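User: I'm curious what two different proteins look like when written out as structure tokens. Can you demonstrate?

Assistant: Sure. I'll show them one after the other, since each token string lines up with its own sequence. Here's the first protein:
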Amino acid sequence: MSGIASVFKKLFSLINVIRKIILNIVFFLILLVFIGLFAAEEEPIRVPDNGVLVLELNGRLVEEKTWVDPVDAFFDEMLGGSGQPAEVLLSDVVVAIEKAAADDRISGIQLNVSSFTGGGLNKMNVLGEALLAFRESGKPVITYADAYSQDQYYVAAHADKIYLNPLGMMMFEGYGSYRLYFKELLEKLKVSTHVFKVGAYKSAVEPYTRNDMSDQAREANKMLYDELWQTYITDVAALRELDSRVLSGDMDEFLAAVTEHNNDFAQMAVGTGLVTDLYSREQFRQEMITLTGLDDDEKSWRQINHEDYLESLNGQAFKEETKERDNIAIVVARGVIVDGRQKAGMIGGDSTAELLRKARLDDQVKAVVLRIDSPGGSGFASEVIRQEVLELQKAGKPVIASMSSVAASGGYWIAASADEIWAAPETITGSIGVFGMFFTFENSLAEIGVYNDGYHTTNLPVLDVTRGLDEGGKQVVQMSIEKFYRDFVSMVAESRDMSYDEVHAVAQGRVWTGSQAQQFGLVDQLGGLDDAIRAAAQKADVVEYDVEVIEADLSARDKFMRDLFGQASAWIPASVFEKNHSPIEMELQRVWQEVKLLDKFNDPNGVYALCELCPLQ
């Protein structure tokens, strides 16, 4: 026994030594950061004369950036972790473009879309319109890539010149989605799946009850994606003179176009009008130097990225707060809707309601635009938010719902009672339906010899994952789901001045584009955020106003850590953070983000209004 004790004692000593080493490394790393912060002199950002504004579209376009704890983000980057998927704030990019158009120091824009991962057709359209407006100033927009994905090309199509690496390619694969189905796996694991839903087209639960897509889901998919794809090819065809074969979606026509160019995809891209010319990286570098002149320090063309450019303006890019003027407030609701309080990037019933309440209690705020980018989520949390919309209206402050890429299910719930609903033609909305689902493992446990037994004073259902659910219990849950659906449809009918039957006919979980939803009466007007702001001002009868984004107040700790580690990241050379992510790693990141959402399904009644077709924004 003493020998065993000696082994464990030595093992513990080794672990303790390793622990101390790690703690010392962390301590000296933080100390190094502090020394660097105090020693480094912050140089002012200089906008080069005749420089190009580089739009670094690294990640996904978003209405609001996801909150990441600055300490976690700093050490994750330092240690080479994958971290939060990269995001680009749409408003920052658009403001930078608008300011650069009137800035004599800026000679043009370079679109860097190599790491761009999309963000919804309507947001890409907003970016594209800003680029077209910039071109009207007489300054060029130029882009170069080794290859273009479909989303990358949509943005690139708004440029004057599109260059492609001679070994690159571009192909339109169209829109669609595929899902994994787990019914047979769950059966093999003897997991009991309990599903409750209302709406023939509410297919969110199908992966757990089927091994393939239902006819209703296929019909809904076809209608939605065909409409979005038609919008995509119409927009691109209007921007570039393209050979119709590359947009036809017909494999034979596409192969014929490639064959005509000796099976060279890059040459095919030039020949069919997809790109302006084929350039090596050095050829593109020389092209840009010809445009801007040589930056002797960097040995490259004169340039500044859009984030540095905005910072260099020292707040001039944004309107100064004017106490005497009225405000139109914007409250951003982005992400899945869950109960409780959440940071930016997730919609919390309590936290988003608090933002609306903050606008209601601010005497300067005369109207509110609720900017929604959400596939829905918790039914209870959605209603908590909608109640705050009603309170704003009682206070005499109109509310305009402005739909971004997605405002479906719970996302539509929180919009329904607004004074007006504005959507982009490409917005994914509707999906008026509800479901409930949970798993029990009584059969899985029995397989390994584990059982559940006990006593209860009534025979009313008790939800316990180690026990099954009898028919009475299933009936109770189904009744609550059906009641919630009736409430959903009735609320929409009352808010939209429609009959129950009119709403029910376009509900049942069906997903629509913004254009289709307007035809059915679910949306009032088609337009973007600026249109919604103007509509809010008109409703409030104000002419001169400022636009204010209502944001959650950071705690003292969050502010300190953000400032400290934000500066630390800026001080440490960028090369330390550089990490190229493979397509597989990026896809796994996306899947993992979706998997983590399962932990956020915390509706107190277990009832969810979530759009299964909608991409997570």
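Here's a second, unrelated protein for contrast:
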Amino acid sequence: MTAAAPPASVDLSALPPYVLALKERIAYLADAQVERVLRAFQIGAQAHAGQERKSGEPYITHPVAVAGILAELGLDAETIIAAILHDTLEDTELGREDIAAEFGEVVAELVDGVTKLDKMRFGSRQEADAESFRKMLLAMARDIRVILIKLADRLHNMRTLGAKDSDSRRRIARETLEIFAPIAQRLGMNKFKAELQDLGFRALYPDRYRVISERIRAAIGNRREAMGKIEAALSARLSADHLQSHVVGRIKSPWSIYSKMRGEHKSFAQLMDVYGFRVVVDSAMSCYMALGVVHALYKPVDKRFKDFIAIPKANGYQSLHTVLLGPFGAPIEVQIRTAEMESVAESGVAAHWAYKTESGPANSAQARAREWLSSLADSSARTVSSAEFIENVKIDLFPDEVYLFTPRGHILSLPRNATALDFAYAVHTDVGDHAVAARVDKKLLPLRTRLESGQLVEIITAPSAVPNPAWLEVVVTGKARTAIRQYLKHLQHEDAVDFGHRMLDRALDAQGSSLDAIPAAVLDRFLEASKLKRLEELLSDIALGNRMPDMVASQLLASRGKRGGKVPQAPPQAPEKIRITGAERGVLSFANCCHPLPGDDIIGYLSSGKGIVVHREECPNVVELRKSPERCVAIEWDRDVQGDYRAELRIEVINRPGVLATVAAAIAAADSNIENVEYVERDAAAATLLFAMEVKNRKHLADVIRRVRRTGVVSGAYRYPL
């Protein structure tokens, strides 16, 4: 389909009422731009001709409504046009080239960024959704207007959700609450966030929404007089101190109350027993003066003051928050801000829209949003899996942040419960990769320490320090998780190539040959037939259990025999065991059923995609594993083994006060770290304890058992399982 040349002007009499309403909303645009928007409607209506929404309305009413939502924010003509055309690439024959030719490359890029990936082939609906969302976020990183269109699209879809079937309503509502509302909040668009949450809550939990909404209405009715008195007192006191202000009462939303009831385990009465007010003044200095006035009127509650003007939230939000003891025995929450801050709080990145590619963003929310989007683009480049990328994005969409100081006085905002290791990666990936400890308010603490707002954090690094898998259990930010996973994948690949080389050499050696004896031409043909680009990929596949080394060896020797005559047969040899140091954690894992330790007789089992799982020879599961001899790998411990290994002790004790502390002290005295302890059995006279701990080797475990037995409170201590 090719777009026609634009007419001199659009015939207004032929436009439906909903388009004329849009024309009224975009009166802030120049006449030429309004003409372009109306032209976009004509092209969009022609492209969507014959298509209807589930409600029976012409489909074009939806994109025009989306454009109307964006027009209320005062966005530019390109965004309005892209909103009208946002579904054309996906649902019509209109092509990207047609849009670019008619409206320019910027509009085409915006439409392409919003377009879903339904036409691509994916293994599952979840994978398609994840890849679609990933594409949208990357387009959004290039041009923030993409997410504004997508949020307006989702908002209108939520407003008209009633036409969908029940399952679709729940799925769309859940996605809205989990992803789109938090993104709106992350971008400072609180008005969008509040409506998305309200509509999502109503669609996902209609009964809960109805009950809470009714109780809110009843509570407001009961306390309208008290609210009026407090509001009048605040206004009068501010006016007496010559502060121009506007005071308005705030009411919590049903979703906010439901979330806090569930997350903070509070009753409805506890949450509603708070009076909320917003005070809007004319300048930042007036905010602090107004704070003094309200503190003089009602006493402030200790440790409940927050200054988001000096230290804005990650989404650009600025305001003073304080809690006062009111005249009716209930706390009063007061927010104090300027009209400018109010606008940014409501509309975030869309406030006072002035999209400038060179001269920079128009407000702090836009500046901070671009920093976040830039970090998302960096995270996506490091993450292969779309599902993993979306998981990291969800982690970063925390509503609550902690604000931390670097030694140079810079402020970093991190999600609540972030650790010193998250802080290290927030500073720089290299700092995180080599972190060993942290100084928090000049006190030396481990990297797993959770941080609190206002702390001064300094990261101590060492060139020899590197990430380990346990770090993934410590961090909460997407950036840290992505960086650690990328390092471990690189480490796994290097370990896998080395280990796979040793396994293939061992398999060839058992058949009287070696990898060096295989001609390069034979190896190249084998790799090509296996659809592998390099030898390293073959070796990695072997170590990760995706290919059997004996089978690969046989195939290589057979190929060599075909090309170079008969292969001389060497006498069969007992395969040489592969020695492990325990440092090959990228391709080795240790079975939880038997917890092998250095010093044990061990056997390896190739598990597809996981690599080699190490078992003790006497493990009961080994009998079953040996039924697949091609997957069994002859391994043994090297003489020089490093690291700590998990072991479990089953301890029979006399049940009396202090026995647990006595046993734990004996284990700690043997330089073993206790990971977990649980009661297996317990009665009045005796108890059985199961300790999970870390030891260096079999000898270290024996030393732990000796110390435990000497305590005098133990009737039996032995390794578990036996």
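A detail about the second structure: The first helix runs from residue 17 to 25.
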